[in-house]
Structure formats: structure tokens, C-alpha cells
Amino acid sequence: MKQILIILLYLPLLIQAQVQYFQVSGQIFASGADSIFISQQFGNTYKNYHSSPLDKNGNFELKGELPSPDYYLLRIGQNSLNLVIRDSSRIQVYGDGRNLLQHCNFVNAEESRQMHEYIVLNTNWRNKADSAMSAIKADPTKEAEINNYMTQAYSQFQTALQSFVGMYANSAAIILPLSGIQIDQDFASYEKLIIPLYQSFGQSTIVQNLYQQYLNKKQERDAANPFAPGKSVPDFQELRTDGKKKMKLSDLRGQVVLLDFWASWCGPCRAENPNVVKNYQKYKDAGFTVMSVSLDSNKDKWLAAIAADQLIWPNHVSDLGGWQSKVAQLYHVQSIPFTVLLDKEGRVIATNLRGAALEQTLQQIFGF
Fold it and tell me: What torsion, rounded to 10 degrees, do the Cα atoms 57, 107, 53, 47 define?
């Protein structure tokens, strides 16, 4: 079996980590190797920290110091196993060197076992996908049948992957599904995994660098996002429901404001309105209000929806321009409902809070 998975990238160290004492022993029989190594991989090269001979039965013992609590590789010939070494680890590893993927056991190393579980899951999926491609190449007439089967298989793989992430959310093993996410393509998923990983294994130099990479990307994204938390939003003036008087967003300065883009014809908007009304009634005397910007083009339907949904706050505006609404264009609204929660100085707290998320955020702000 070739190396199972490369998990380490060359990244500059952020801090000088603490020394980690360790002991790894066990038996890897029938490996064909005469030595075993504790290593890390940087690009295409290995850094070996300790080595031990394998006796004729495959028994070994490695112990000593490592640079820090971190991710390491137990290398046996062309094979390798992923290890999480921390907390004065005394790990035991037993396996069949002819097939470590399927026949390997970890003792006193639960996070290492979890990493191996992920590798088995991922490798089995990749082997299945490769077999499907080979089958299609051998008989193109079966492409539709095989693609249908693989669609179901991929769905099962994704379900198993989500189950893994859910079960081991606070484990160092989460670095493996994290490594499969492109931060530029799926920032939200990357963020969801890196934060608890940093909280659970922040001693790791590898995790520290990945977390710094995440912070740098977040700062870059926030700089490009006009509605990032803490930013001030553009002021505007728009017509009220009478079509004559105008009001400005800045007229509400000093209150926490939910700026709500909606329309009478928007089903999800109407479904969320009762939740907004409930929160307005609860917090209006504490300094919370709503400013609703309608993307309606029919005034009668707009006013009828306000009445029907009992949107009792006075701050309703619209130029009845529909998707061409000047305020919607100013705020780059692509879909509705779209909301921006603003603090008393007109700075962004969060966007698109709905349901329980809106209620929880207001509870945190007002303390009840």
C-alpha cells in the first residue's frame, strides 16, 4: 500500500511550540521493512525525528522528544499512518504491513484512530469512483447506469462524511476533512471546521498556521464585503407609505435597526414577518426598531401586506420600483428577504438573520 494521505504543508512557524514527550510501540508484521520512523512531511520531503528497528516479528518501540504536540507520520517502508501526538502520548499501534488500510488498530490514541477511520472512508470512495471510471471506459454503453449508481453512492459518502464531522467536531481528526475543502471555494465550510479545530488543538503548529491562513482570508473577504460586521452602511432617503413624506435611515440613529428588504409577493418574506413582529414587540421599548424597504411596484398590494402581516412599526419606505428600487441597487440586493442588523451608530452587526438566529442575537444585545 502506498502512502495513505499527505496531511502536512510547508508553512512558516508562528510561534515556538513546547516540546512534546512521546512513546509509540507495537507490532507491524509482514511489512518487509527493517525500520520504522516518526516523521513529518513538508511538500515532497520528510523530516525524521526518531527511528527504531523492527524485529523479525515486527515489534518496535519509539520514544523521546518531538518539537511540539502536533500531527506526525508513523512510516514503515512505503506505508504511513497518521498520528496525533500530545499529552505525553503512550500510543500502541498494531497492524498487518501488507494492508495497513484495512488491518490496523490503535490503542490509547483515539484521535489517531479517528483519522484512520476518515482515511478508510475517503479511500473507499476514491476506489469506487476510479472503478466506475474504468467501467465506463471499458463499456461506454453503461455510462448512464453507472452514473446513476455513482450519484447514489456519492450521496451516501457525503452522508457518512457529515456524520464523521458531527461525531468528531471537537477532535484533532477534523484536520482531514478540512484539508479537502478549498478555502476560496467554500469559505463557510472551512470556517465551520477550523474554529473548533483551533479551539481543540491550538497547541499544534500546523493548526496555528492553518488558523492564521483562515484569519488572513477572513480579513481579505471582510475588506471586500460592504456588509462585514463593524462596517458603516450607506445612508439613504426614501418615500414613506403616503408617497409624499420621506425618511432617512440615519433618522433612526441611536436605535438598533433591522433594515429589512422585502415585498408583498415574496413568500419567504411573508413567512418571516411574524418572527420580525414578535421581536419588534419584545424589544421596541429597549431601543430596537425595523425599517422595511419594499421591492413592490404595486402600492395597494404593498399596503395590504403591511396591514395583513401587522407590521406595526412606522418605518416603511419604497419608491415602488420593484427590482429597480434605488435603495435595493445601493445595497446590491440580489434576492429577498435580505436583512442587515445595525447597531446604534449605524454599523453592521450581522446580515440575513432569520428565525431563531435573529432572536438569539437580539437577546445577546439587550440581555433578555
Answer: 150
